Amino acid sequence: MSEAQPKVSVVTVNYRRPDDTIACIEGLRELDWPADQLEIIVVDNASGDESVDRLRAAAPGVQLLALHENTGFAGGCNRGAAAATGDYIAFINNDARPDPQWLRAAVGVLERLSSVACVACKVLDWDGNLTDFTDGGAAFYGHGFKLNVGVPDPGDADTPHDVLFPHGAAMVIDATVFRDVGGFDDTYFMFFEDVDLGWRLWLFGYEVRYVPSSVVFHRHHASMSEVALWRENYLLERNALFTIYKNYDDENLRTLLPPSLALAIRRGVALGGDDPHSLDLQRSALDDDERQPAHKAMLASAFAVDAFVEHLPRLQKERRAVQSLRRRSDADILRLFRLPLHANIAHPYFVAGFNAAVDAFGVDDVFHRGRRILVASNDTISPTMAGPAIRAWQIAQALSREHDVELVSTTACSGMSHPDFRVRYVAAAELRRLIDWCDVIIFQGFLMSQHPAIARTDKVVVVDIYDPFHLEQLEQARDLGADKRRKEVHAATGVLNQQLERGDFFTCASDKQRDFWLGQLAALGRINPATYDADEGLHQLISVVPFGISEVPPRHTRPALKGVVPGIGLDDKVVLWGGGVYNWFDPLTLLYAIDKLRARVPEVRLYFLGMHHPNPHVPEMSMAVETRRLADELGLTGTHVFFNEGWVEYEDRENYLLEADVGVSTHLDHVETEFSFRTRILDYFWASVPVVATDGDSLAELIARHDLGVTVPPQDVDALEAALYSLLADAERNAQCRRNIAGVKDDFRWSKVLSPLLDFCRAPVRAPDLLDPAMTEMIGRVDVPRAGLVGRDTFARLTEHLRRGEWREIVKKLRDRMRALLQ
Predict the structure, then answer these.
(1) Which residue from 148, 257, 583, 620 has the least number of CB within 10 angstroms?
(2) Phi, psi (deg, nearest 5) at residue 539
(3) pLDDT confidence of 152, banded at 50, 70, 90?
(4) CB 122 within 8 A of CB 214
């Protein structure tokens, strides 16, 4: 977190408990947070007693909102948020006291991780011994639960993880996001408004992260009269129905709403202690007056269902609005329910009905966990990971929403964890155990050649060939000398051929790549009657799965370039080279263009985002050395050209992207270019940064077709300089490109581009030709039919030789043919 702390508005709601609220305010003033960046807002919910006067006298400097009606917890929080002026809004119950580090721990995560919009805080009992909230679960019918309630505080053993919702007692959220998603639903009054908000945040593409170092201590007021319990049951049932109606997708709502309505009534009957199906009760219902006495718990459930029906016109509008902004599928979110099939009361009468409803309506099918999937990479998995590891991470994350996933690196893994899948480094022996464990293995790179167990297994093997690295080796190995270069290219081709012979399913990055790989598959015999008859389009053999972009828009959480890097001022124009420098790229033409451009745009600054690859097995290439040399020679280093000698962390790159005026990707006119898929350009799209790129690949075609920037011929200094000038000097042109990018980038969201792989893993199958011994015998050995001793053409030539009396020529031809047949 940067030294200048953002402003935080803390909102708490009071209702006839001014002593608690005053104690809470005193705790807030002890926070480790700059007082001038802390705004405390107290909302009095029409207490009707001395609360307002006491709060005003005891808490000067606090913004006090005295409401004329009791709007409940949800409404009170919303009124406080509407008055807040902070960058973040923190909600805390008035009967809670914060740990001094409460805000610092929460805001630190929000500042660092743009995907996280809301922090769920750890809530302990007043003495700090027992937990009140460390995780949240939900049943399919909408009831939210606090998990691990009453157990000893796990302390340091507790780890940050994703949760469906934050506990309303203590949470911190980005103020803009809170308002954009509509805040709490006022109609809830109290109960489950936090569940509804969290679910909505996930739907809209944000994340809710539990942060155990952000702690509050909570004192409960649990004594409630029978009337209060009746009111509580009513709100619980009604709000649960509100929540599922608004947030499930159409298919799941059709499946889950009917049993939810039925179980709401069943739960009321069970809580009332009645069994209307006993013989005696049936007789009394016939014999007594039409008006029967009923327990208030049963009435609460009936009234809750009735209230749900009454609110349907409003709920329909809200549902349409919510679903129209959906950025995640239900499959992405249901994993967070934790306890979807939890019968929340243990009454035998209710449990029997619950089991019957779950079975009759197929509820279990909605939440069934799928396959065991191993995602393996030989790239380094760390906060500074590069493209292959990022892709493996995103694949694991997407699949973990439906399956049991392990992500492993055979090179190095550190500093990365995820609540929904295991991520670690493995050696060869552990990799073999995981191959035995999994149903499906997905891998990339050289893994199969390094670990032959992948080739030998009878498990389903998915090969991610988005990177045609044998083409890259044509340039990358140029520095190794002629003999070693030949061997490296030959070896890379052999590695890929081995994968193409064994894989059950292949993923590549573009339609053009798919055409290329189809040719190589055909040469190896993988396009055969078995694979063709299974799917004449061969999409069950190889599908396009491009690189993707995050569901969550990038956020600027700290200054990274302008005013930070010496030589780059706040008003300078930044051209960003968004990745490493490799031999197939052309930064040299770019340097010449910058040298020319600085005469017209003196404030132009070119920044290279990464010079040293985080994978220790990727050496520094000659092009990187030459780039530094030319920048020095032209007098650009430190004035107009700047190098980041390390590698920017994956979660931090957004800060650099959002300060860029133009993103650039220039390459040479190589065969590698035609089949490449520049992942750095996807980052530019994510941040809506106009792009200047060299012609020749599929993304350059997209840029030109949709006016997302400017494309230029290879090694054309003048064209490149003019393109950069047009986007740096013309603010409206730059802004138009940004608007155009906003119109196409949703097509590259990870959830969308990974859909062919997700579909395959829901029903993984071995490739049909690999299950046919006759076909397997032919793969890799495409025979060329041999002619006989004397074919038709040969006979015609022999006849001509005989006519001329050329006996020596006849003997030579026959000898050559015999040798060919005997080889």
Answers:
(1) 620
(2) -75, -20
(3) confident
(4) yes
